[in-house]
Recover the amino acids of this structure.
């Protein structure tokens, strides 16, 4: 069995046992997670663990999220294919690739240039052309490119940053972990009549979102 077949089998097992089994039903999300080679987004020394049911370190104190959490957050965005999506926290680039499979355009912001450059290289190698990259404070969003149909935040904030709410289009969805350093809840918000209506999805544990509207250094 060649190496790429080993990874393909691992992806199929990941989707069946970690994602479908936990109730993720969006066929487009499942198809994207079957397609994107997660092992290319983790450090080479950890590739044998890339499809495990847990997050992995990627440098700069950051992580690539557990596959199920990626699927849960992505499904909650309700992407149909024509959306403009803001991703706060490029990280490894894996979530970026999933979004690029499902939306018209992805705008992704990262605090650490080293992480984004590495992610960008993998994403370009895989042929993605519908992604814009920016280095900066993700809590401020990307005002020049707003409004966004969906916003996903891959680090935890004490509250939903106000600029992100302002940059969300009417009817748009935001998914973000909210809480303190140790206890967080994944929140989904939908903007209706200019007001964000939120609901809790499930408890999670993310690294801190550092920035003007997030945690301080």
């Amino acid at each position: 069995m060649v190496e790429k077949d080993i990874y393909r089998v691992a992806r199929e097992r990941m989707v069946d046992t970690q994602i479908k089994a936990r109730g993720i039903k969006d066929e487009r999300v499942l198809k994207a997670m079957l397609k994107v080679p997660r092992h290319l987004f983790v450090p080479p020394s950890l590739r044998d663990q890339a499809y495990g049911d847990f997050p992995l370190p990627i440098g700069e104190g950051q992580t690539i999220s557990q596959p199920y959490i990626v699927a849960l957050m992505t499904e909650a965005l309700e992407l149909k294919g024509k959306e403009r999506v803001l991703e706060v926290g490029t990280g490894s680039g894996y979530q970026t690739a999933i979004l690029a499979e499902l939306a018209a355009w992805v705008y992704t912001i990262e605090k650490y240039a080293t992480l984004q450059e590495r992610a960008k290289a993998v994403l370009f190698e895989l042929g993605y052309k519908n992604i814009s990259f920016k280095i900066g404070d993700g809590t401020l969003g990307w005002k020049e490119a707003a409004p966004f149909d969906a916003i996903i935040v891959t680090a935890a904030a004490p509250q939903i940053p106000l600029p992100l709410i302002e940059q969300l289009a009417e009817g748009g969805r935001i998914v973000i972990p909210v809480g303190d350093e140790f206890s967080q809840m994944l929140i989904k918000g939908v903007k209706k009549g200019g007001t964000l209506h939120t609901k809790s999805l499930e408890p999670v544990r993310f690294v801190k979102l550092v920035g003007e509207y997030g945690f301080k250094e």
